[in-house]
Amino acid sequence: MAMTGSWRRRVDRDGGVLLFRAAGVPVLLAPSWWLGSAAIVLIYTPLVGRLLPDASALSAFVIATAFTLFLGLSVLAHELGHSLTAIRLGLPVRRLRLFLLGGVSEMTRTPTRPSHEGLVAAAGPAVSVALAAAFGLAAMVMEPGNPLWLLIAQTAFANAAVAVFNLLPGLPLDGGRILRAGIWAATGKRASGTRAAVTGGVVVAALLVAWAFWGVVQGEEDAWVRFGVCVLTAWFVVAGARGELSAERRRAWPEGLTLAELVQPVLQLPAESPVSGALAASAGRGVVLVRADGVAVGLLDQDLARRLSTRSPQAPAEQAADPIRPETVLLADEPGEEIVERVRGTAAWQFLVVDMDGRPSGVLRREDLKAALDRR
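The chain above was modelled as a monomer; its predicted structure follows.
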């Protein structure tokens, strides 16, 4: 598969290898996936030897390797369930990554409805349950006790375990997202759902650590392996929960603040106006440049206008315009959280605010919004 130079650099910087694209979503394999897979092979090979006493060491290794690949494909299917559901609901997905502890589907925009949050979260476990059922049925009709049966049966068990673990009610697990969606739908406040699901994540992490210590105290055969896996997973859960809480705080709209308090008044000027005149008129205002046919060509970029005015003060102001794109247009009555989300996710320093009739009502600058959030 051919890759452009810029994409290859991004993959290298992110520490992952591009496997393929699914519905336009890049699927990356992080280096840590190999480490996790090697650990599974090492841990699972002796288990195969105990379950199949007649199997040679080489056969046990091959079965363990095949199981690891099946598990990796199962995790990929789980994450594709999230990604394809998000795309179906109109939520762009930046990428899908497979790494040490599983996988993650990275959406570029936060769901704006609790139903969307819940559907995307539930899609992954639903895929895992379906795979567990399919492999389980296959194992039931097979003759038990042979290597192929063991591989199919263990894959069924692994998918069931993935589904159950991910449905635990704590962020960043899928169950935590489902819990957040439920509380969000009941209260109308996404932040309340996030706080509850973060608490659930901390509880899940604490239970994992407690279970790990219990195995060590009881002197169980796999106690130290369990200890390492549980502590690492608990760290992942706590880090993810903290990240979700921080993200929620960043997107929260300050109570009592209105968009009208942040926007600059808007001034419409002909696109062919001299850039020096447009720059002078832009003091404390946002400038929409309009052609003679009434089409808005963009918002005046003051930095670019200053540079152009120094060289050629009579040049058309249109040459110093930021194009107006759909993602840089905000509705005056748009919820504050959605405004924060849009501004954070869009590469632009100013946004046109329009009323319900589509008329320009102001210009919001990124730095003004940031200052308001920082003051909060």
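The chain has two domains: 5-251, 259-375.
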